[in-house]
């Protein structure tokens, strides 16, 4: 979670995004969500960088599903790739936000809409890192917040943290007119559309 994922483009331009929330499918395969617009070259070669200098990379399965549409008034901008059996067996993945912040659960759009304007909202981007900013609005369509994000952070997990240092997923970074004004796709409709379950952090 939070690593840079790259899909090779067709015209020499690669699509660089962020591995967002870890998930399970019905076959217990481990995968990661990102933004649907990151799948610009369906079936294209995909890899993940293992360090900030981009000197080490790990090859990944291509994106298996992606969507970029509006369904029942909700914006869907999401994609998912699954680890290889070897990567899954070696536990080549993380299911925490930080060493002290655990992934507890996710919030529905209704729960997110009920949060007061100004509630701190955070994301874990592949380029900007972990940043936070105030909730601007949450509607059935999407989530708008004032956190810092830059190109390459698309797909990052967007979340809120409670007093017990539990993170609750609310969305995936989708777009934004500037670096401090960003929008996210709600997480629950994506999980339900593809029959996925959030991977949470086991209790200590």
Topology (elements, then pairings):
Layout: E1 4-7, E2 15-18, E3 22-24, E4 30-34, E5 46-49, E6 57-60, E7 65-71, E8 74-82, H1 85-89, E9 102-106, H2 109-113, E10 120-125, E11 129-138, E12 143-145, E13 157-161, E14 166-178, E15 181-186, H3 187-194, E16 197-198
Short description:
The chain has helices at 85-89, 109-113, 187-194; strands at 4-7, 15-18, 22-24, 30-34, 46-49, 57-60, 65-71, 74-82, 102-106, 120-125, 129-138, 143-145, 157-161, 166-178, 181-186, 197-198. The chain is mainly beta and 204 residues long. It has two domains: 3-90, Thrombin, subunit H (Beta Barrel); 96-186, Thrombin, subunit H, CATH 2.40.10.
How is this structure best described in words?
With 204 residues, the protein is mainly β. The protein folds into two domains: 3-90, Thrombin, subunit H; 96-186, Trypsin-like serine proteases (Thrombin, subunit H), CATH 2.40.10. It has three helices and 16 strands. The strands form three sheets. It has a six-stranded antiparallel barrel. A five-stranded antiparallel sheet has the order 7-8-4-3-16, covered by helices on one side. A four-stranded antiparallel sheet has the order 2-1-5-6, with no helix packed on it. The mean pLDDT is 91. InterPro entries: Peptidase_S1_PA (IPR009003), Peptidase_S1_PA_chymotrypsin (IPR043504). It comes from Tsukamurella paurometabola (Corynebacterium paurometabolum). This is Trypsin.
């Amino acid at each position: 979670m939070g690593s840079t994922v790259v899909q090779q483009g067709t015209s020499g331009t690669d699509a660089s995004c962020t591995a967002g929330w870890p998930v399970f499918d019905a076959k217990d395969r481990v995968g990661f969500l990102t933004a649907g617009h990151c799948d610009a070259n369906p079936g294209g070669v995909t890899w993940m960088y293992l360090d900030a200098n981009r000197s080490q990379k790990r090859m990944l399965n291509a994106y298996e599903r992606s969507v970029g549409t509006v369904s029942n008034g909700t914006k869907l901008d999401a994609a998912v790739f699954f680890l290889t059996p070897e990567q899954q067996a070696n536990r080549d993945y993380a299911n925490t936000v930080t060493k002290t912040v655990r992934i507890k659960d996710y919030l529905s759009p209704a729960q997110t809409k009920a949060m007061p304007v100004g509630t701190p909202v955070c994301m874990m981007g592949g380029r900007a890192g972990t940043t936070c900013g105030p909730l601007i609005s949450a509607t059935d369509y999407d989530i708008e917040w004032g956190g810092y994000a830059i190109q390459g952070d698309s797909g990052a997990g967007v979340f809120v943290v409670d007093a017990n240092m539990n993170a609750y997923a609310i969305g995936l970074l989708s777009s934004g007119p500037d670096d401090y004004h960003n929008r996210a796709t709600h997480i629950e409709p994506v999980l339900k559309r593809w029959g996925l379950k959030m991977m949470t952090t086991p209790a200590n």
